[in-house]
UniProtKB/TrEMBL annotation:
Organism lineage: Bacteria, Pseudomonadati, Pseudomonadota, Alphaproteobacteria, Hyphomicrobiales
GO molecular function, one term: S-methyl-5-thioribose-1-phosphate isomerase activity
Organism: Rhodomicrobium vannielii (strain ATCC 17100 / DSM 162 / LMG 4299 / NCIMB 10020 / ATH 3.1.1)
Gene: mtnA
Name of the protein described by the UniProt record: Methylthioribose-1-phosphate isomerase
Enzyme superclass (EC): isomerase
Family recorded in the similarity comment: Belongs to the EIF-2B alpha/beta/delta subunits family. MtnA subfamily.
Keywords recorded for this protein, A-Z: Amino-acid biosynthesis, Initiation factor, Isomerase, Methionine biosynthesis, Protein biosynthesis
């Protein structure tokens, strides 16, 4: 996507062997890039959310492994780097998926050739993510187009968190259908949930929709149900961090409440995700998907820009109050209208996903 006339991906190889990223902790107040040079740089970037979003976390881990192999390409070095990266964030399964792809490819390669091979494989995963997200967008665009044909005025899409190009390598998952509809001249307007506590909606989704010229309005997290009751939401599309083989979907905390409100109001609710987000080993998402608990400081404090242009962090809770900060929740399959994938729209069920991805579904 373009920022200030320059086309950016979210991650790229630099000419000096480092890996470039956009520092997402500085958005929307400052657009700054960073160089990752070591395994520890990559692990830190994922941990503190300089990069974030399930697909981008996976590709960053792949590049992180390549960076690690520059320092130690031995078998032990490879396995230990993969362990370090796997431990950075627990919920998005794309991380484990990407590391597994890398390990399967790299283990048979001689140590002397591993680092170069790893950079090439990471670049391949990045390219594939772009194409996958483009396809997700094409399938999701058809849903938006169908609704547009039946109504006057823009199609109102509600989204939660950030599942746009800055959560992936380019295009995004949930936002790719919106970009493609907008680019095709289909009138679309986005309700952007602010997404407390880290405000990925207000800070990141609003930033990227604005940069692309897509009409949008930021709303408080609790406004979605009210808007749905009044017919102001035509459909919801969100991203996903881990989908079980039975169609339960983990996404940013608060997604479940939006899905409940959508069900109560007959509003279609879609998750948009690639194959790398599906965990074929799990079936009961509420019981089995690990939910990341983050520092309560993300809840008790907020960062913003003053009218004078300074970026400041302030406390917003009563001093001394404890805070709890589960970062994701699970929406059960029964609340989901469909899963928008690179292969088309699948029912959120074991049978539906098995029909969409027959070569991955387990029969047991
Ligand atoms: O904690 P984050 O910002 O990494 O969470 C991101 C989300 O929940 C996204 O909606 C999800 O990863 C889908 S990304 C295409």
């Amino acid at each position: 996507m373009k920022i200030g006339g320059t086309h950016y991906r979210t991650i790229w190889p630099e000419s000096d062997g480092a890996v470039g990223i956009i520092d997402q902790t500085r958005l929307p107040h400052a657009f700054e890039t960073l160089k990752l040079s070591t395994l520890e740089d990559a692990a830190h970037a994922i941990r503190v959310m300089q990069v974030r979003g399930a697909p981008l976390i996976g590709v960053t881990a792949a590049y992180g492994l390549a960076l690690a192999l520059r320092a130690d390409a031995s078998d032990a070095g490879l396995e230990s780097a993969a362990k370090t990266l796997a431990a950075t964030r627990p919920t998005a399964v794309n991380l484990a998926w990407a590391l597994n792809e890398m390990l399967t490819f790299l283990r048979p390669i001689a140590p002397a050739e591993r680092a170069a091979a790893a950079f090439a494989k990471a670049a391949q995963l990045a390219d594939e993510d772009v194409e996958t997200c483009r396809r997700i967008g094409a399938h999701g665009k058809a849903i938006i187009e169908d609704i547009a044909k039946k109504k006057d005025g823009p199609v109102n899409v509600l989204t939660h968190c950030n599942a746009g190009w800055i959560a992936c390598v380019d295009w995004g998952t949930a936002l790719s259908p919106i970009y493609q509809a907008h680019d095709a001249g289909i009138p679309v307007h986005v309700w952007v949930d602010e997404t407390r506590p880290r405000n990925q909606g207000a800070a990141l989704t609003a930033f990227e929709l604005g940069a692309h010229g897509v009409p949008h309005t930021v709303i408080a997290d609790n406004a979605g149900g009210h808007l749905m009751q009044h017919g102001d939401v035509d459909l919801c599309i969100v991203g996903c961090d881990r989908l079980t083989a039975a169609g339960d979907a983990a996404n940013k905390i608060g997604t479940y409440l939006k899905a409940l409100a959508a069900k109560d109001n007959g509003v279609p609710f879609y998750f948009a995700l690639p194959l790398s987000t599906i965990d074929w080993t799990l079936f009961d998402g509420v019981r089995d998907i690990p939910i990341e608990e983050r520092d309560a400081r993300e809840l008790t404090h907020m960062t913003g820009r003053t009218d004078g242009g300074d970026i400041v962090t302030v406390q917003v809770t009563a001093p001394g109050s404890a805070g709890a900060n589960p970062a994701f929740d699970v929406t059960p399959a029964r609340l989901i209208t469909g899963i928008i994938t690179e292969r088309g729209v699948s029912p959120a069920s074991r049978e539906g996903l098995a029909a969409t991805y027959p070569e991955y579904a387990r029969t047991a």
